[in-house]
Request: fold
Amino acid sequence: MKVPLLDLKAQHRSIRESVVAKVLELADAQLFILGKPVEELETRIAELSHARFGVGVASGTDALLLPLKALDLKPGDEVITSPFTFFASAGAIHNAGARPVFADIDPVTFNIDPAAVEAAITPRTRAIMPVHLFGQMAAMERLGPLAARHGIPLLEDAAQAIGARRRVDGAWRAAGELGAVTGFSFFPSKNLGGWGDGGMVVANDERIAARVRSLRTHGGLQMYHHDEVGTNSRLDALQAVVLLAKLPHLAAWSAARRANAARYGELLRGLSAVRAPVTDPANEHIFHQYVIEADRRDELQAHLKAKDIGCAVYYPLALHLQPCFRYLGYREGAFPVSEAATRRVLALPVYPELSQAEQQYVAETIRGFYGT
Ligand SMILES: Cc1ncc(COP(=O)(O)O)c(C=O)c1O
Reply:
C-alpha cells in the first residue's frame, strides 16, 4: 500500500466540478488581478477569523512581511518569535528590517512559551509574533495581556491555523481574532490551499490594514501616486475563485483531520517509543500537520519511506541555528526544547481523505518498526 503525506488529487476529485466552473467563469471574464473575487474572499476570511479587515496578498510570507513593514521597524528593533517554525516567520522579521529574537517553545504543544517570551522582552521589542504551529493556537490569553502591558502589538503567524479556535475566558476565539494583525497562507498544502501561492492579512487595527492594502500595491492606493515604497503583492483573482469554491468545505476537512488524529491516537496507544501530538484542552486543533515525537526518529522515517508511507520532518533545524542567522549570535543549546523537538518530530499523513485502512497500515508499520 502506498500512502502519501498529502493527496491533493483526492481533494480535487471531490470538488472538481464546482472549482473548475468558477475558474472557467474567470477565464471568460479575463479579470485576473484583485477585483470582486479577492474582495469577497477578504470579507469571508475576515468573518472566519472574527477580524474586522482582510487584505489579500501574494503569499503567506508577505502576509507577515507587509504587516511588519507597517510597524515602521528601525534597525535594532526586535520582534520575538519561535525558533521552531517555518523559516518565513523569522525571515519576514529580518526582511522588514528588524532583529528576530527567539523565545523557546512549550514541549507539549510546540508553541511559543509565554514565560520565555516575557524573559526575552527588552526596551527594543516592537512586536511579538506567536506561530500557531501545526494547526493549534498559542496561549493567546497570556500573550495578549503581556503585549498590552508593554504597549506592543501581537502579530499572529496563522499560516498553518486557518479556522483554528481557542477557548479564552469561556468564549471561542478564532485564529486572527485576538492579534492586532494576522497572516494566513494559502500555499497549496495548507488546509485551505490555492492553485499556487497566496496569502491573507486580517487585522483588527484599521491603520495597519490600510497600510498593508497600500503596501501591496507599491505603497499607493491611487494609481501612479506613492505615499511610501511598497511592493507588488496582490492576490490573484484566480486564487481567490479557487479559495472561495473550497472555503465552504474547510470546516468539514479540518473536522476530518481531527477525526484522523483521534484514530491515530487509538492506533498508537500504548506505544512508548511514540508520543502522539497533544491538543491543549483550550484548543480546537485543525491538524494542518499530525506530528508525533519518536525514538530513533530518522530510522523510523527511513523505514516508513521504504514502506511507501509519506512522512516529513517539520522542522529539522531550529531557526536560531540557521547559517543566515549566525549574525544574531545564538549558540547551540540556547533553546533546548526547540532543539530537542527538531531531533524527535515526524509528521504523518492526516489529510481528510485518508482511509481507515491506510491509517491502520501506517500505525502497523510504525508498530512493526518498534517490534510491538
Ligand atoms: C508557520 C508559517 N509561516 C509562514 C509561512 C509562509 O507562507 P507561504 O509559504 O504561503 O509564503 C508558512 C508556510 O509554509 C508557515 O508554515
In short: The first helix runs from residue 8 to 29. Residues 59-61, 85-86, 88-89, 131, 157, 159-160, 185, 187, 197, 199 surround pyridoxal-5'-phosphate (CB under 6 Å). The mean pLDDT is 97. Residues 134 and 289 are 5 Å apart (CA to CA).
